[in-house]
Description:
The complex is a heterotetramer, with two copies of chain A (603 residues) and two copies of chain C (274 residues).
Chain A: E1 14-21, H1 27-41, E2 44-51, E3 60-67, E4 78-83, E5 98-107, H2 115-120, E6 123-127, H3 129-136, H4 140-152, H5 156-167, H6 172-190, H7 195-201, E7 214-216, H8 218-228, E8 233-236, H9 243-255, E9 259-262, H10 266-278, E10 283-287, H11 289-305, E11 309-315, H12 332-337, E12 346-348, H13 355-370, E13 373-379, H14 380-384, E14 386-389, E15 436-438, H15 452-467, E16 476-479, E17 484-489, H16 493-505, E18 511-515, E19 517-519, H17 523-529, E20 535-540, H18 546-554, E21 560-565, H19 574-586, E22 598-599
Parallel strand pairs in A: 1-4, 4-5, 5-6, 8-9, 8-10, 10-11, 11-13, 12-13, 17-18, 17-20, 20-21, 21-22
Antiparallel strand pairs in A: 1-3, 2-3, 2-14, 7-14, 12-19, 16-18
Chain C: H1 25-39, E1 46-50, E2 65-68, H2 74-84, E3 89-95, H3 96-101, H4 104-113, E4 118-123, H5 158-165, E5 169-174, H6 178-190, E6 195-200, H7 213-216, H8 228-237, E7 244-248, H9 265-268
Parallel strand pairs in C: 1-2, 1-3, 3-4, 4-6, 5-6
Antiparallel strand pairs in C: 5-7
The complex binds thiamine diphosphate (2 copies), iron/sulfur cluster (2 copies) and magnesium ion (2 copies).
Amino acid sequence: MSDTPQDNAAARESVSVAITGSGGAGVITAGEMLLAAAAHAGWHGIQTRSVGPQIRGGEAVSMVRLATFPVEAHDDAFHLLVAVDWRNFDRFAAEVLLAQGGLVIMDKAAGDVPPPLKERAGKILSLPLSKAAKEAGSRVNMVALGCIAALLGIPESSLEHAARRRFAAKGEKLVEASLAGLRAGRDLTMQEDLADHIANLRLDRPEKPDKPRWIVSGNQMAGLGAVHAGVRFVAAYPITPASDLLEWMTPVLSAEGGMLVQAEDELASINMIIGSSFGGVPSMTATSGPGLALMMEGLGLAVSAEIPVVVVNVQRGGPSTGIPTKSEQTDLNIALCGMHGEAPHLVLAPLSAADCLFTTAWAVELAEALQAPAIVLSDQKIAQMKAISDPLPLPAVKVARKVSEACAPHAYKRYALTEDGVSPMALPGTPGCMYTADGLEHGENAVPSSRAEDHAAMLEKRARKLRNHDYGPAWAEVNGEGEIAVICWGSTAGPVHEAARVLAREGISIRTVSMRLLSPLPIEALEETLAGVKTLIVAENSHSGQFLHYLRAWCDLPQEVISLKHAGPRPITAPEVRRAVIDAIGGGRMQESNIALKEAPVS
Amino acid sequence: MSDTPQDNAAARESVSVAITGSGGAGVITAGEMLLAAAAHAGWHGIQTRSVGPQIRGGEAVSMVRLATFPVEAHDDAFHLLVAVDWRNFDRFAAEVLLAQGGLVIMDKAAGDVPPPLKERAGKILSLPLSKAAKEAGSRVNMVALGCIAALLGIPESSLEHAARRRFAAKGEKLVEASLAGLRAGRDLTMQEDLADHIANLRLDRPEKPDKPRWIVSGNQMAGLGAVHAGVRFVAAYPITPASDLLEWMTPVLSAEGGMLVQAEDELASINMIIGSSFGGVPSMTATSGPGLALMMEGLGLAVSAEIPVVVVNVQRGGPSTGIPTKSEQTDLNIALCGMHGEAPHLVLAPLSAADCLFTTAWAVELAEALQAPAIVLSDQKIAQMKAISDPLPLPAVKVARKVSEACAPHAYKRYALTEDGVSPMALPGTPGCMYTADGLEHGENAVPSSRAEDHAAMLEKRARKLRNHDYGPAWAEVNGEGEIAVICWGSTAGPVHEAARVLAREGISIRTVSMRLLSPLPIEALEETLAGVKTLIVAENSHSGQFLHYLRAWCDLPQEVISLKHAGPRPITAPEVRRAVIDAIGGGRMQESNIALKEAPVS
Amino acid sequence: MNEAMRKPNDFKSGVKPIWCPGCGDYGVLSALTKAFARLNCAPEKIAVVSGIGCAARIPAYVNAYGLHGLHGRALPAAAGLKLARPELTVIAAGGDGDIYSIGGNHFIHACRRNVDMTLIVMDNRIYGMTKGQPSPTTEPDYPTHLYPAGTHVQPLDGMSLALVAGANFVARAFTGDPNDLAEIIVEAIRHPGFSVIEVLSPCVTFRPEEREWKHQIARHALTPAGSVAEALAAVASAPELSTGIVWKGNRPPYTGPGDQAGKRVQDVLDSFVA
Amino acid sequence: MNEAMRKPNDFKSGVKPIWCPGCGDYGVLSALTKAFARLNCAPEKIAVVSGIGCAARIPAYVNAYGLHGLHGRALPAAAGLKLARPELTVIAAGGDGDIYSIGGNHFIHACRRNVDMTLIVMDNRIYGMTKGQPSPTTEPDYPTHLYPAGTHVQPLDGMSLALVAGANFVARAFTGDPNDLAEIIVEAIRHPGFSVIEVLSPCVTFRPEEREWKHQIARHALTPAGSVAEALAAVASAPELSTGIVWKGNRPPYTGPGDQAGKRVQDVLDSFVA
Ligand SMILES: Cc1ncc(C[n+]2csc(CCOP(=O)(O)OP(=O)(O)O)c2C)c(N)n1
Ligand SMILES: Cc1ncc(C[n+]2csc(CCOP(=O)(O)OP(=O)(O)O)c2C)c(N)n1
Ligand code: SF4
Ligand code: SF4
Ligand SMILES: [Mg+2]
Ligand SMILES: [Mg+2]
């Protein structure tokens, strides 16, 4: 990895490949199979996709990064770009940057290479991909995948394994056809003089893992975490990019004795889960920005009536309908501050696709323990990413709501002012404790009250229970030492961790703080963690610096604060983080005030 | 005004009276008539009320403050408390504090005086109010009002004027009866030996105003400001305490050729006004917390599609349904940060009941000029307060949307990247400019785009147009000089201004900054205004300090910051502000960091 | 508590209603407690779920579990509760504004979803709690502060909508006849699936003329019809203030999507292996 | 532009639809432009307002003013526009999910409010845009990724709801018969008040079997009924895939609450004098 992305590594620890083509070409399938084959062979890696606006038949790019070490994020340039065709490639150009000197392979029939690519490419190779596919009785994506696998050095056995898994259900004929295509692709590559490029693209051998690796998406892991933690009722309304989380959950819930109900809208879904959780069943919904906006009134009720619910919000580009298929970290504001009145609640963020498992389960634990709503801020990047992972242990969460025993008539106080602020909750069916949960301000006995004293006591109780809880060390992943720290939240952790790894190898030690618990903000722990830091780089995938301003609002930050941010389809990358650190070391930029925030240059 | 509220003034510049009684007793009417009579006689003053949860027939308090100078807020104690009965008085006890040594007048039949009152009262007088009412063929509230007027020295002619205005429409018989009651009250008082108290309660003579004074409520003034500024379409859904704003508007709009449509819910109202404003008609809605929560998705569309709309949000106690009939300043968070994605927009706050006229009109001007949604954060206190005011001039706002002329087919760019970020908007009916407004991210031509470049350009455009606008001096009322400053927003301005007035007479000069424009935050102007300030007192009617944290998030604040805050039915009072200033001067409290915020002691 | 001996009073919570003296909602409260007594339900096995409004205040006055939620959202909250806790008797309650205006979408989808619970709509043809704005059932020419000259909008016909949308039991009752109302509530609760009872319940404060309803009611002018079409015709042709049960359907109640051919958590882990 | 010469093509914007090849919505677009041509509207006097979904993408493809708003909210936005700008021809358009699921409340209230505009519901019995979840019109046993074993929920009958709720013109059409559809759109636009056209519009991607609809349509099995009750009966008894106009009512359109006995701003100032 270097400052200007270029392709000059010797033996590769990490290689990035993009496959592009218009609808029906199957480039997504090819990318997923490449990942699966690599996983089988023992590599790590991730695969993501970017698609055009067409519902079907639109153009798409499949982006794959493979490595000998665990990766959670893309590199900022691709070493190999394979184009089945060039249709609307300019739509993706900003997301798919070819490394300087990188290799481009394209179908002979695809037409002209887009000019910017031409400039950067080390070599452009026109191969008869579609012709070969036709001859092999296969499809062009398989031929392309065959080429790629051969260049990268993916064992044929792993490729065959991936093809069998993929197509077995559809019959042996399809399996054979795809294998033929893969072979044709390999043969095409071998006929060319690509020695230099092959040397450059070939991956180091991986260490063989003990157990077969998993391929997981964030949405699957969030669903798994929720069901594992005991969620048995889900009500939701479909929305991209949360729908596949719901689709994963329905059958599992039905097998676990729970259920998923498709509601008529998000107002219904949030209120349905408030009802079910009032009934004692851990409950969840999943949505994305526009749906979250519709749920805020319901979440306020959950705050006031102290009813635990979990909302997994898979962020996408905003504002409004925005860019539904692309990632962004800009629902932080609404998640933190989107309710009217004083409404303390929980906000968490998974750090990677795999971490969706732990973080979602933890959210269920916290919501139930604190009788408060929890918003989990996932995002499209990790939610729909396919990531190779060691098999994940089911997290050891302790999900336990403090419930009330049966009691004498009129003795039960639903909102008793306990020391920790959590009051035992009577579940319907418990004799003697009949009460009415209320979103009107109330006294300890749950009867509505507009008295100033009751209001003050309840506001304080609801704040106290969150403030005083012991969240343990999971509030963030904290690594490294040094006077420079990079702080981030959620899915930006991936590139930050990788930048730290690269910098460490360059002999530069930095501190990284990747926050999982965003609200209540663990101010003390955070300030302790940042003690001694001179320069703080705040990295986030937003336009206005929502995270930075949130930190400023509540914490004393180090003297110099650098904001590394940009919104939209391009996430923050590891090289950007690394560059920001190097620039910060370069110095000459220290400043007294943390007002005139510097914005790190962003490519 | 003194530290421990007590009643020891000589000639009164300001006097506060509370009238309490259960439903049907008419204490609200009495308070309003007292205010009207005082206005007629040339005093200034305000009247507010507090009611119990009953829809009708519940207990109520009418709180009146009269003064020789303009007042916008209550004092923190009452010099005279008149009780028609004591039913559920404890509900209001925290809101109606008797000044130490104050006078209590009660009906003979009302039973025991609540113990805390007994301790504070200088004298408790049992009078046969209801008996006298019966004898006079009048009602008990008129008798009580007669007593009060006599004690305060309100001229009988003004009282009679108020009674005539109030009851004329209902017939001369009622007028006569009420006059009889008023006289009976006066006579009752005169029979007692109250010389000390009368001396104490009697108001200084006012300067006679040139023109007859007005009595206005914030809701009326907001409606007037909106219609004056050109709003001609309102869609809304009833909610306390915004309903009377709507009820004021319907007939006026119908006379002005506009209309008010009651929508089926708040989702409909916000989308209706988006539709009408897309059509070119300045449009508005009004709501309160729960309704605002439901409008956030719509407001996000208005941000993205750049459609001006104004939402007057009359704040009440939160979270959730909260305390619908009481005031609070806790919708700041949602108003500022309640939309998903990056959604820059306008947030304004009127500083008083009268200021609702200017601020709402200004909001219409800004929304139209910047093609963005504007939220006006009024609150129950000023919205439903009755305030005496000099006649208000209709503000000189310039409401002008930048519209597009007819143009050649396919030439029109709805979201053209202009320098100031505002793009001429074509109104339906304009030949050649047909385009589709969109909440999906789009290019200049309004066609949806998920390209990173388009997204970045539009995010920047939407932020730029707000950032670069010249808002002039109206962003805040700034007064005074000194190293101590008090900053506040919206309706807390009243008590802050009054505290400054009192302090000035005590020889203490402070700076006060009462913010009207909250978003975009005028950072430069604010920092300039605060230059040289050593101690900043941030006053707000919230539990968590929403305003303070917002300021911290974006500005470098002075070295010492003191948070003066409490939520709920009791607003911040002038004596509290004064005390915070005195304490700050007391010193010994300066501190380096602005993290370990001090909270001013609050009674 | 001796089960055989439950009385209406056992179902009163003792919390003092905020309702105006004479409000029709007192009669609904009284009928509801009578119905629970007749059904001999255990109070802890009942949940009353509501939105916001005068009518929607009813849960706190009943000695049962209650959820006083958001304006318009009683039905989804009630459905979530019933689906998660099928053994409970779930009542949803609210006013004409709560259910038919802001809650209209949940109303039609609750009818079609047909969860086994009972909805009581206390119809006073006005927004009581917010002091007298028109509701979807207000007559087009009825003057209010908001519309001194009336809304000019056709009222919504909740019963016909319920019928078309698929409710499994549809009735109208009058709060001034609490025994009859109690009987209808008993039948509605017993009837499987989603039951809708529209209760004419005067707002004596903002619509004092509704006190006259007691003289205008067409008691039991509605009787169970043989088909939805007949029920619709009956509602259309009956006098405006008719009461009675007009429809008892036989659609099976919705208890969730049932078996969706899934695997349990432990068994699904294999699917992640590359 | 010469008014006498407007052609369907004059109403195409040139923006390339994101729709799948073969999607039924192309036919709706084509019929809509035909209807505008037949009505000889000026493009700048038309506004097409929609929510979110495949169907709801239609405004950008029409050469007219368009508002592509929020999922479910086409109808209030369209009503606001029409009430503020009564001289415009306003079309609201969306899918079965957009209008009947999340937009259901606005649908019934739009019917009862009766603003003079036309709603086109492109019904494909599925959520196309979000890739195949069930909609309110999906059959209870239809398998999707979300519910492999079906939802077990009764479909919503949009036309009957429209009739009961008060729509002034109700029809069903088929996108595969664009001339007929265009004719129905022309009639709907011409008819005063709120017009509802449910258009059967196959989703070839997520419900490929709907390609068969072209063989199953009962063309004009519906004809204008004499009363709402008859119209309801006709809808109930006609074959599932019937087309035709079933109702033309004569309720006067809503143009706002009209004169509410108010004073103009300058005249109202007096009322503030103490
Ligand atoms: C989201 C939201 N919008 C508006 C309100 C204000 N509100 C409270 S009750 C009510 C209507 C009450 O009318 P109805 O449902 O008929 O009940 P009633 O009081 O007549 O019994 C309204 C509009 C609210 N609480 N929440
Ligand atoms: C508030 C909100 N919730 C959910 C979505 C996601 N969403 C987009 S379109 C759609 C449904 C589309 O179905 P339909 O209206 O039938 O249109 P079709 O695509 O089938 O034409 C959904 C759920 C959204 N955009 N906004
Ligand atoms: S306002 Fe009307 S509905 Fe509300 S309590 Fe009073 S009488 Fe009943
Ligand atoms: S997904 Fe279905 S509805 Fe959407 S464009 Fe494709 S065919 Fe049409
Ligand atoms: Mg009502
Ligand atoms: Mg559809």
